[in-house]
Amino acid sequence: MHGGQREVNVPVPNDRSTFLSTLPATQSDRRTALAIVGISAFLFALAVPFASVPLERMPAFIASYQSALAVCDIITAVLLFSQFAVLRTRALLWLSSGYLFTAAAAVVHALSFPGLFAPNGLFGSGPQTTAWLYMIWHGGFPLFVLAYVWWKGANGRAEMSASTRNAIIGSLLGVGAALAALTWIVTARDGLLPPLLKEGGGFTAAQVGVISFVWSLSFAALIGLWFRRPHTVLDVWLMAAMCAWLFDIALSGIFNSARFDLGFYAGRLYGLCAAMFVLAVLLVENVRLQAQMARQVGRLRRQSSSERDYHAERERLFSAVVESSNDAIITKSLDGTITSWNHAAERVFGYSATEAVGRPIDIIVPEGRRDETKEILARTRNGEVVDQHETVRMKKNGQPVDIMLSLYPLRTPEGKIIGASKVARDITERKRTEIALNREIEERQRIFETSQDLILVTDGYGTFVQVSPSATAILGLKPEDMIGRSATEFIHPDDLENTRNEMRAARRGQVKRSFEARYYHYDGHEVTLNWMGTWSEPVKRHFFIGRDLTEKQAAEAQFRQAQKMDSIGQLTGGVAHDFNNVLTVITGTIGILADAVADRPELAAITKLIDDAAERGAQLTKHLLAFARKQPLQPREIDVNALVLEAAKLLHPTLGEQISITPMLTEDAWPALIDPGQLSTAILNLALNARDAMPDGGTLVLETRNIFLDDGYASMNPDVVAGNYVMIAVSDTGSGIPPDLIDRVFDPFFTTKEVGKGTGLGLSMVFGFVKQSGGHVKIYSEEGHGTSVKIYLPRSSGVQETEYEALQNVPIAGGDEKILIVEDDTLVRQYVVTQIKSLGYAALEAANAAEALTIIDADAGIDLLFTDVIMPGNMNGRQLADEAARRRPDLKTLFTSGYTENAIVHHGRLDSGVLLLAKPYRKSELARMIRTALAS
Questions:
Q1: Tens digit of pLDDT for each residue in 366-407?
Q2: Percent of the chain with pLDDT over 90
Q3: What integer pLDDT is reported at residue 453 of this predicted model?
Q4: What's the mean pLDDT in 120-130?
Q5: What is the arithmetic mean of pLDDT over 314-329?
Q6: CB of 137 within 8 A of CB of 146?
Q7: Regarding the domain with residue range 323-432, which homologous superfamily does it belong to in the CATH classification?
Q8: H or E element at residue 541
Q9: Which tens digit of pLDDT belongs to each residue from 64-121?
Q10: Contact 751/759 with Cβ under 8 angstroms?
Q11: Which of 343, 422, 582, 854 is the most buried (most CB within 10 A)?
Q12: Domain limits, the chain
């Protein structure tokens, strides 16, 4: 018993249960037929020498032989016709007709035989009639056998489309008509045929020719049967019959001399055997089939009884299963009336079987679900199975219950649909659990997708299984770039062993592990991450959360730099203060000494050298005090534009003709509260540094601009207070500063110039002066491109709002376009992405031109390219914009740079009129420039 079904073994009958005309012949069939043919051949060989021996004339033998032969052939024909009626093959129809022909020919031959029923035979036959009828008889049957062989090979297996009854009637009529015609020819028109028998009883030459032809036809039929494979049982015994047929013709028509000799009688016996072989096999087969049918009927009766018992037991078991099922099992008629109701249905819906059976199914269907029930019932009425359909039903107390329905049509044994069987599973608790689980999964997925930290999941071998989308912002890699790959491909080699040790410790039960490890960014630089890791034994997974320490390390580096500068400032301030005290004594006494030796030129010259050295020392201490922010300042409200123009005039003779000075001043520059002398000195120092960076000449750009440094910029530069500033930018087209030296240029006494060509205090004095004045200084430089130093001076208070300020304070307009930000500095890129997203735009980001082009090719919805101008790699921002325009002619571009717009254009890096947003910029400027670029 498997799944409510029982396997019943019904003995399969032997292959003998099929028809002889289709049943393949076995070796036993072949051996039996061959033995009979062998015996017949042996007896034939014994009879041949005595075939001409005359024997006594016995007409009764002829009558008996012909009658037996006709009966055998008729019975054989009837049996073969019955098989044809089932199998409908043309080959079998021809063979049946052949046996019918031989039976009729034997009767006609007997009636026309001389001395049997009349002295000269019936039908008015002549002396040659019987001989010709014998030849027609013995030559006709082989022709039918040849037709059987032909149709058996051509399409004898194919069924006839015509009526078998009509085919049999046609065969009877055709055989009768053909034999009647032939009999009429050999009786009424026997004179037309050559004589076959001599007057003395011997054979004529025509007889020899005709009998040879008839024998050849029989032999051809035998050969045809032999070569038309595969052989059936009927074929084997038909070949045995044809062998006896050949012996019949040979003894009674070839080897004998006349009628009633030994060959005559022996040949007739062989003919009778030929008629009996197939008949005997068919009769034996029929008896066997009847016996087998009787056994099968008995077996079926026993099986039927067993099946009844089995079905009764099965029904009992099914009833037990239905009643013990945890699912509600209900049957109903096609009009929706409940016909059965199990215990689970009572528990789920609250109605007892007595209350439910006979009532409409609507008692458990909410009002709003009645149409749904009608539709499902209509589908069931059409024979459709409704499987796993979730819906809501109602308990007796009116409480709704979530249900999983499966409905199947109920059919009568004849296949008529009379109702429906319904299985209802209460899934209320499962739905509640699924909702809670889905909510938890959704919450975790949202945390996973929106986390700013890097979340990684690996298997026990360190292969990434899941990677959070934050990998793109932190490592420049898409999650799909990492999933399926080993973590060893991304971890810094020096941190690999420590990471492995942490993973081993986690697997030993130390659940939470915190450690640092460096990963490689897509562009090759290292990213330090602080990791919190844990191991889950049930799922065999490592879970890691990594926090990017780049910003923290940068802030710490800035803090250390500020501490260093403050420490150096305190040291240099103290040294300068004490040195000033010494210089005060020297300068005060050198004057007394100069007066004392005025009449002695050689000593006066020495005194002058000492005085000059003291003056240089005083200048040195002045620079040191400026760096230490301890020099005495005399700030006053000044016009920055006027001071810069005055400085430009003074610089022309100092810098030389090979350097072009270009002032670019904003018309409404704010006034600044500053020491004008110190500011002029600072501009002079920056100009002299620019001149030294342009030994072959170049351009010096002096700019002023009103700037608002916002909280975002202040967060990236701890020494900056957000507010309004006046910017003075000094930009050159010189050799630039190497990246590894950019952080040291403000250190005192640091210089890259040759010995004797600089003290290393020029930039440090500028740095100290600006800081002491409450301002900010920023330097941008690219090797081979030039340098831009920006001084941000606090705006003087107490003035009216300018037109520039009014413009900056207009409402900020955002949008919903998609913008690609290309910036090599990670902190700046994250800051820009945050600002752009806050304006409502969709933001994509790239660290270099190669990444940007990949994103542009993959996303056709990008509206604006916002790119830095100077970037590392084989392609700068301008080249990136050109290539992007070639691929996407409709793509708008907005440039940004640490250089000012005038400096950039003058350096030849951008065409005139190209949109540039100079760093730093406030959110309102960013918003306005983006809208301007999108509208361009």
A1: 988 888 888 888 888 888 888 888 888 988 888 888 888 888
A2: 5
A3: 83
A4: 67
A5: 74
A6: no
A7: PAS domain (3.30.450.20)
A8: strand 541-548
A9: 777 778 788 888 888 888 888 878 888 888 888 888 888 888 888 777 776 666 666 6
A10: yes
A11: 422
A12: 27-292, 323-432, 453-553, 632-794, 818-935
Report how far residue 238's alpha carbon sits from residue 149's, in angstroms, rounded to the nearest whole number: 11
DSSP per residue, 465-506: EEE-THHHHHHS--HHHHTTSBGGGTB-HHHHHHHHHHHHHH
pLDDT tens per residue, range 762-797: 677 777 778 777 888 888 888 777 888 899 998 877
Token readout for 912 is: 């005139």
Query: How many Å apart are CA 795 and CA 164, to the nearest integer?
Result: 119
Q: Tell me which residue of 242, 244, 262, 240 sits closest to 252, measured CA to CA.
A: 262
d(CA 701, CA 721): 27
Q: How far apart are CA 468 and CA 932, in angstroms?
A: 35
Q: What is the DSSP string of 101-144?
A: HHHHHHHHHHHHSBTTTBTT-STT--TTHHHHHHHHHHHHHHHH
Tell me whether residue 814 is exposed, middle or buried, using C-beta atoms within 10 angstroms of its C-beta: 0 to 12, 13 to 18, 19 or more. middle
Which residue from 502, 501, 512, 500 is spatially nearest to 536, judged by alpha carbons? 512
Residue type, 500: R
Return phi, psi of residue 876, to 5°. Answer: -90, -175
Angle in degrees, CA 791, 797, 803, rounded to 5: 80
Q: Tokens 């078998």 belong to which residue?
A: 164
DSSP character string of 136-187: HHHHHHHHHHHHHHHHHHHTTTSPPSS-HHHHHHHHHHHHHHHHHHHHHHHH
Which CATH topology does 453-553 take?
Beta-Lactamase (3.30.450)
Residue located via tokens 């307009």: 813
Domains 323-432 and 453-553 belong to one CATH topology: yes
Distance CA 341, CA 318 (A): 14
The Cα 579–Cα 598 span in angstroms is 28
Task: Return the bridge partners of 918, or none.
Answer: 897
Q: At what angle do helices 262-324 and 27-47 cross, to 10 degrees?
A: 170
Give the residue, 199 or 568, on which the prediction is more confident. Answer: 199
Write down the mean pLDDT value for the chain. Answer: 77
Task: Write down the CATH superfamily of domain 818-935.
Answer: Response regulator (3.40.50.2300)
Q: Which residue spans within 783-879 are E strands per DSSP? A: 786-794, 818-822, 842-846, 864-868
- Give the domain 632-794 fold: Heat Shock Protein 90 (3.30.565)
The rounded distance, in Å, linking the Cα atoms of 678 and 674 is 8
Does position 162 have pLDDT exceeding 80, yes or no? no
User: Please, which residues have CB within 8 angstroms of residue 375's CB and are 6 or more apart in sequence?
Assistant: none
Q: Read off the pLDDT of residues 698-727 as tens digits, 9 standing for 90 and up.
A: 888 999 988 888 777 777 777 788 888 899
Three-state SS sequence of 444-474: HHHHHHHCCCEEEEEECCCEEEEECCHHHHH
Confidence bin at 912 (pLDDT 50/70/90)? low
**How many whole angstroms separate alpha carbon 878 and alpha carbon 909?**
7
Specify the pairing of strand 636-638 against strand 672-674: antiparallel
* Nearest one of 399, 401, 422 to 410, comparing CA atoms: 422
Give the DSSP letter of residue 795: B
pLDDT band at 168 (very low <50, low <70, confident <90, very high): confident
Q: Would you say 925 and 901 are in contact if contact means Cβ atoms under 8 Å apart? A: no
In three-state secondary structure terms, 405 is strand
Is pLDDT larger for residue 828 or for residue 519?
Answer: 519
899 — pLDDT class (breaks 50, 70, 90): low
Residue 446's Cβ-count burial label (10 Å; 0-12, 13-18, 19+) is exposed
